[in-house]
Amino acid sequence: MPRYCAAIDQGTTSTRCIVFDHAGRIVCQEQREHRQLYPQPGWVEHDPAEIWQRTREVVAGALAKGGLQAGDIVAVGITNQRETTVLWDRHTGEPLCNAVVWQDTRTDRLCQELARTGGRDRFRATTGLPLATYFSGPKLAWLLENVPGARAAAERGDALFGTIDTFLVWWLTGGPRGGIHVTDVSNASRTLLMDLHTLAWDEGILRLLAIPRALLPEIRASSEVYGEASALLPGVPVAGILGDQQAALVGQTCFEPGQAKNTYGTGCFLLLNTGETPASSRHGLLTTLAYKLGAARPVYALEGSIAITGALVQWLRDNLGLIERSADVEALANTVADNGGVYFVPAFSGLFAPHWRSDARGVIVGLTRYANRGHLARAALEATAYQTREVCEAMAQDSGTVLSSLRVDGGMVADETLMQFQADILGVPVIRPKVAETTALGAAYAAGLATGFWHDLAALREQWAVAKTWQPAMAEATRARLYRGWQRAVERSLGWIEG
Fold it and tell me: How many whole angstroms from its chain centre is CA 224?
């Protein structure tokens, strides 16, 4: 009798496999990083073949650590970095090029050209999204125009497109030997190609971007049995797909309208459940699919996407050598009492929500002879909290709902200094659940619901429990002064790239 549910969590910097028991507790896990490729300024790529290899390694590694066999697993769910775009040969599985990562800005000119004839929001009513380099549809259009042989292969029917979920499911279910070419509504809603209301690819946008329909995967629910794995987990149903941020919403059991979570990873992503009707944004947020569980009606969310948070800590480590390990940033930040007047706006690939300014670039402001390594580290951590407040304010304006607390997850929630500052700068409690790996847990929940391992949402709600709450302890005058400083720093990051 299968006793566990597995999740493959393919993120921006690493791939993990986590196995959960029926109580939603972690049984075993394995994680491996993959390379970050920067061939030109503003370009960010991954090697899809390397990602598939890492996936194989972490599944085997997790099972070995737990002393488990494929027969012990009731189902596997996939969660993934969402907008990263893969183009590969349907007959061999070979990528036609490196994957273009969600942070990549090479489609800026294409997005500007599209905006000239219809405005930046020309597709928003249909897709819920502004024209931005973030999304995978323009990335695919760019690849078809610029990768030698890509368009010809697409028109012959020899090429397949997918986000990372699609690529992994295709390989898991057989690859060139009958692999299933699907995605779910949450990932499809991030392409700029899907109609939010019909949950189908929009033929008009496909024509405008010159994308052949045959390239695209079938859009399915987030929780259903798509097929059986033939590789890695032979015979195990592949039964859940959720983009990473939507997976965290499910893992945090934010099933009621008005509930929100923030995930602190490479970037930061705050999602607010808005129920079964898409809510439009007037303040720079995205309208997105939260999830669709089987035959139930789809559920929508408002999202604030921040490009660079944890990636800024990695930059301090890898590019400046200020720390040896990412975890060391907290100790370095705590060598000083405050930011010393230093602000760090990490607009390495422009600013995402609520600004959507691709002409912005990273700036450090407020430097004096007094400033040292500790102030830089503290400014880097505080940047995450300030950007989150910007998104929370936009969310309150769009939804009319003012957050009374914020549920948090992701790698950076282990940083006590950051979480306390987040509570201070928001002025509301910040709550970390007992199982902080909510992205993987959400994918496991989707797969387990589809196969009867968990019976309903009520069973999942009962498993959610608080590990720690940070209460705000900052004076309102201090909070306002610090946030004004941040807003001034953001102004100085804008307009750096000339159009």
Answer: 21
Rounded to 5 degrees, φ, ψ at 3 are: -120, -5
Percent of residues in the chain assigned helix, strand, coil, to nearest 5: 35, 25, 40
Q: Closest by alpha carbon to 286, among 264, 267, 271, 308?
A: 271
Task: Kindly report the pTM of this predicted structure.
Answer: 0.87
Write out the E strands in 247-285: 260-264, 268-275
Return the closest-CA partner of residue 247 out of 70, 57, 435: 435
Residues sharing a CB contact under 8 Å with residue 207, sequence separation 6 or more, in sequence order: none
Distance, in Å, from the CA atom of 242 to the CA atom of 263, rounded to the nearest integer, reads: 14
Q: Could you tell me which residues come within 8 angstroms of residue 474 by beta carbon, excluding any fewer than 6 positions away? A: 424, 425, 427
Choose among 373, 466, 344, 484: nearest CA to 425.
Answer: 484
> Cα-flanking dihedrals φ and ψ of residue 209, to 5°?
-90, 0
Task: Measure the CA–CA gap between 307 and 410, rounded to whole angstroms.
Answer: 15
CA 497 to each of CA 42, 350, 493: distance values in angstroms, whole numbers, following the listed order:
11, 9, 10
Helix 310-318 and helix 373-399, axial crossing angle in degrees, nearest 10: 160
How would you write the pLDDT of the chain (499 residues) with one tens digit per residue?
679 999 999 999 899 999 999 999 999 999 999 999 999 988 999 999 999 999 999 999 999 999 999 999 999 999 999 999 999 999 999 999 999 999 899 999 999 999 998 898 999 999 999 998 989 999 999 999 999 999 999 999 999 999 999 999 999 999 999 999 999 999 999 999 999 999 999 999 999 999 999 999 999 999 999 999 998 899 999 999 999 999 999 999 999 888 889 989 888 889 989 899 888 888 889 999 999 999 999 999 999 888 888 889 999 999 999 999 999 999 999 999 999 999 999 999 888 888 988 889 999 999 999 999 999 999 999 999 999 999 999 988 888 877 888 999 888 999 999 999 999 999 999 999 988 889 999 999 999 999 999 999 999 999 988 999 999 999 999 999 999 999 999 999 999 987 6
Q: Which of 289, 243, 245, 300 is nearest to 267 (CA)?
A: 245
Q: Which of 127, 102, 147, 245 is nearest to 192 (CA)?
A: 127
Tokens of 131: 């024209």
Nearest-angstrom CA–CA distance, 405 and 423? 9
Q: Are 105 and 133 in contact (CB under 8 A)?
A: yes
Q: How many residues does the chain have?
A: 499
Two tokens, residue 221: 């629910």
User: What number of other Cβ atoms are within 10 A of residue 485's Cβ?
Assistant: 18
User: In degrees to the nearest 10, what's the CA dihedral of 393, 396, 402, 405?
Assistant: -60
Task: Name the residue with tokens 């697993």.
Answer: 73
For residues 172 and 230, the answer to whether their CB atoms sit within 8 Å is yes
Q: Which helix (H) or strand (E) holds 5?
A: strand 4-10
